[in-house]
Amino acid sequence: MTYKPDAGPITGPLFAWGPAATRERRTEQAPEPLLAGFGQPRRVLVAGATGFMGQHLVRRLLGRGHQLRALARRPPRVDWGGDVEWWPADVRNEGSLHGVAEGCDVIVDLVGTAWPDREQSYEDVHVDGTGNLMLEAQRAGVDRLVFVSTLGASTSGGPYFSTKYEAERRIRDSGIDFVIFRPSIVYGPGDHFTTAIVDLLRRLPVFPVLGFSRSRLQPVAIEDIADALVQAAERPDLSARTFEIAGPERLEFAKMVRIVARAIGVRRPVVKLPRTMSTQALWVAARLGLPQPITPDQLAMFRGASVLKKRMNPLRSVFNLEPLPFRVAVRDYL
User: Fold this and answer.
1) For a Cys staple, 218 with which of 57, 229, 246, 280, CB 3.0–4.6 Å?
2) Who wins on pLDDT, 280 or 151?
3) Buried b (16+ CB within 10 A) or exposed e, 33-66
4) pTM of the entire structure?
5) What residues contact 154, with CB distance under 8 A and at least 6 apart?
6) How many other C-beta atoms can be found within 10 angstroms of the C-beta atom of residue 8?
7) What is the CA radius of gyration of the chain?
8) Percent of residues, the chain, with pLDDT higher than 70
């Protein structure tokens, strides 16, 4: 790849998918984010580039004219439609990362695991992996580290949430400029959330809802968080900020299941299981090879509410985006 510093300013609206009317609304209402951004393409390292969020983000960054280096353990299985340098590495292995950030302006860290196993723990990926990337950022003099955490990250959460919080703490203390995102459930084409719901709806005569049917979630479309991440790579005014990111609606999980069912044209009764059976039901589902929309750690969080603490949504107030409603986005891609 050849970096072209004389490529000129990046222009044009961020790419959007969705119904035509929705795309038109977003284009009309969302001002060009580079009003406070960089006028030249940036050299961006995307860690976790072949994952669900990474694949969407890489395409958007390419569409904005940025130069991309994609870090992943395995080669990409898709054509991103542009010139992307693939760097094979594992964030848990510090040696494999040596030199990965050389020449880069920004690192976007999307690496994470929702399903730890014997090979990797939450600590390995979220804390040690992020720490290794942070060291490379310091060595290479990277301008900014953009880190995707999770809504609910805290010292009092389960292992998933506490390790994400510890990674956040280390980034804040590193001396590197940062932008931290704490998204709610992220959904869209190729996700693990609605994909698992669709699979269960098609395979089972009833849909079991685990002990949190009335818990509220605030799901965010992959399009919206990807657009915000692009701005985090471009805008200097977002320095040293942490944002809780969520969609426009607070929905009960059972209602989300019904919305997905209507989108794919199936009807299934929703059976609400007692809270005391929730953990056991997830274990049985895993043994039977059934898809699981959530992890046991997420289940513990969903027993409360996975929503923004304040009514003001940063997608609107900071990133000038009109977040897509769950019903609209799901109907479009399903």
Assistant:
1) 246
2) 151
3) bbeebbebbbbbbbbbbbbbbbbbbbbbbbbbbb
4) 0.84
5) 161, 162, 165
6) 11
7) 20
8) 78
Mean pLDDT of 233-259: 95
Helix (H) or strand (E) holding 220: strand 220-221
Name residue, tokens 């510090």.
94
Residue 301's identity, in one-letter code, is: M
CB 246 within 8 A of CB 305: no
- What's the topology of domain 20-186+219-248+311-324? Rossmann fold (3.40.50)
Hey, where are the domains in the chain?
20-186+219-248+311-324
Q: Are 249 and 326 in contact (CB under 8 A)?
A: yes
CB 329 within 8 A of CB 239: no
3-state DSSP of 162-219: HHHHHHHHHHHCCCCEEEEEEECCEECCCCCHHHHHHHHHHHCCCEEEECCCCCEECC
Cα distance between the two ends of the chain:
36
Is the pLDDT at 201 greater than 90? The verdict is yes
Two structure tokens written together for 42: 């940036």
Amino acid, res. 213? S
